[in-house]
């Protein structure tokens, strides 16, 4: 029995539409129908009722529950072969925000591909909470993210948390924006904020903020609360790239993590990056490499983890220029 047929079956079962399932799978509807028929022949049951509209039979519903397990076990078996020979193909499923991947993957993937040329990568970009649940369910092999203290405490028996970086958060703003609101005081504000700001002095500056409940928005809201003011919010967005694109318009300051700074400094000229304080200490968020506690990792997974740790050490050492708010 071809496991690919099970994957096709699950695609159809998602929305019970052969046409859209075939489009997602990049195959013809005729090919998809053939695969479903082969599954029905293999199991000796009818999986779908086709009239008056497509719906799962009782057997089909049972297969939905079991197919995912079969596919995961097959992937695990294929990946385990990588310990025997790097010539075997496999799949490494990684949960990571796109901007983090953009910063660290150029330092990781060339070496990883040389060692494991037949291992494919599947990247997942969902919310932090969704990806952590996927890791627990076995739908991800690795996750790079910022777990909360409660998540670390509650999942420590199931998940290995490897600290990659205690990441600082920064407020990003232009000289033009600062001069508009602080005038002649701008040099003093910049010098004062270079070692860290609790945002109190920025109470009149407009902000471009992430939408709640994004984690960086939670961080921002806590900082505003502790600083004792309600921010002047010009716009909210779930897309940091939009915030970066608006920087030359000088419409507001925005928050970002330190791992974004290498690319940010290249893109934005004259960019001020001031580290944020919370309760008089620099605000830091742990970035972790997470993996389920399910025995020794396959060779390709272990190598990927080692390369990731090296890359993040490089990112941790990235200097913030004195003009742009040195640490």
Automatic annotation (TrEMBL):
The keyword DNA-binding applies. One of its GO terms (cellular component) is cytosol. It comes from Clostridium symbiosum (Bacteroides symbiosus). Keywords: DNA-binding, Transcription, Transcription regulation. Residues 1-57 form the HTH lysR-type domain. It comes from the Bacteria. Belongs to the LysR transcriptional regulatory family. This is LysR family transcriptional regulator. SUPFAM superfamilies: Periplasmic binding protein-like II, Winged helix' DNA-binding domain. PANTHER family: HTH-TYPE TRANSCRIPTIONAL REGULATOR YBHD (PTHR30419), NITROGEN ASSIMILATION TRANSCRIPTIONAL ACTIVATOR-RELATED (PTHR30419:SF8). GO terms for molecular function: DNA binding; DNA-binding transcription factor activity. Pfam families: HTH_1 (PF00126), LysR_substrate (PF03466). The keyword Transport does not apply.
